Amino acid sequence: MHVNDRGIIICPFRAISCKITELQREDYKQHTTQARETHLALIRKRNDLDTSQNFMEEAEMRTDFSGKVQFVYFLCNARKIRKSILATDKISEVIKEVLREAKSQVQESEAECWRVDPLMLLIQDLTIFDYCIENDELLKIGRLA
């Protein structure tokens, strides 16, 4: 809250579009009480805009890599398999392909995929891009422990 030398208070929500900018000291408390919902809506809107902007920037960044084909190595059934994949491929889809190619007895529902370095279990609903998996990186596919 900013008070100038004339006793006028400037609404702190003015920076995020509150229509009331200057108030007499005695009116300030009434304004903040009455405009509480409006101020909260302005805050939410501001946060949503920031979130939307971040989402759009992330979406643009993702499209830069979505069509990029890369090669990843998979250890499965003591075999090392090199596969070409897209950054947008889901881990679950890749697991299915590797199990089939390795002629593995492991069922998809029992399989898990591990990043070797750093050691990390990969969530199957996420994509190769979500984990920033690099070209020629090594992943391990096997049965749930």
Number of domains: 2
Tell how many strands the DSSP assignment holds. Answer: 8
Q: Which CATH C-level class of the largest domain is it?
A: Alpha Beta
- What is the name of the CATH architecture of the largest domain? Roll
Question: What would you call the shape?
Answer: rod-shaped
- What is the strand arrangement across the widest sheet? 5-4-8-6-7
Low-confidence stretches: 58-65
**Main β-sheet, in a few words?**
5 strands, mixed
Strand content: 25-35%
Could you characterize the architecture of this molecule?
- This protein has 145 residues and is α+β, with helices and mostly antiparallel strands.
- It folds into two domains: 2-64, no CATH class; 69-143, Roll (Ubiquitin-like (UB roll)), CATH 3.10.20.
- The chain has three helices and eight strands, in the order βββααββαβββ.
- Helix 1 packs across helix 2 (36-66).
- 12% of the residues are buried.
- Residues 58-65 have low confidence and may be disordered.
